[in-house]
């Protein structure tokens, strides 16, 4: 009987070990299912947050686009102002040319008047010199 009880003992121990291993795997399987559920929930939450972030980026892009239109309009205004300044510069250049011509004429006139006065003074001196 002693031999029989020793042979039965390892079988009972193996059954107990098998039962504990099954329980351990069942706990691991339950934990994995729970983790998969949590990961699925997290994945859903992350996707929702990314969708909200995409929406915010789209709104930001539309604001940038709206501001780009404003900047384009300002740029067009500056181009018109530049054109006006170019026209004003052309007018100033024409005015400067006219003033240069007028100054040249005045210098020529001054030289002629000076030469005429010198000639007049010389003629009077010659007349005075011939009277004595």
Tell me what the structure shows.
By secondary structure, the protein is mainly α. Helices cover 98% and strands 0% of the residues. The protein contains 1 helix and no strands. It has one helix spanning 2-131. The longest helix is centred in the middle third of the chain and has 130 residues, at 2-131. The protein starts with a helix and ends with a helix. The mean pLDDT is 89.
Layout of helices and strands:
Elements: H1 2-131
Distance between the termini: 184 Å
Rg, rounded, reads 55 Å
What is the β-strand count?
A: 0
> Could you tell me the strand content as a percent range?
under 5%
Shape summary: rod-shaped
Main attributes of the structure:
132 residues; rod-shaped; mainly alpha
Short description:
By secondary structure, this protein is mainly alpha-helical. The protein has one helix and no strands.
């Amino acid at each position: 009987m002693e031999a029989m009880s020793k042979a039965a003992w390892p079988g009972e121990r193996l059954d107990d070990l098998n039962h504990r291993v099954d329980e351990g795997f069942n706990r691991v399987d339950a934990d994995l299912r729970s983790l998969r559920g949590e990961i699925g929930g997290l994945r859903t939450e992350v996707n929702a947050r990314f969708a909200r972030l995409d929406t915010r980026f789209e709104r930001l892009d539309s604001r940038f686009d709206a501001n780009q239109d404003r900047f384009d309009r300002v740029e067009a205004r500056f181009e018109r102002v530049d054109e006006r300044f170019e026209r004003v510069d052309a007018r100033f250049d024409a005015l400067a040319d006219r003033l240069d011509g007028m100054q040249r004429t005045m210098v020529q006139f001054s030289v002629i008047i000076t030469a005429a006065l010198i000639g007049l003074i010389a003629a009077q001196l010659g007349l005075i010199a011939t009277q004595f």
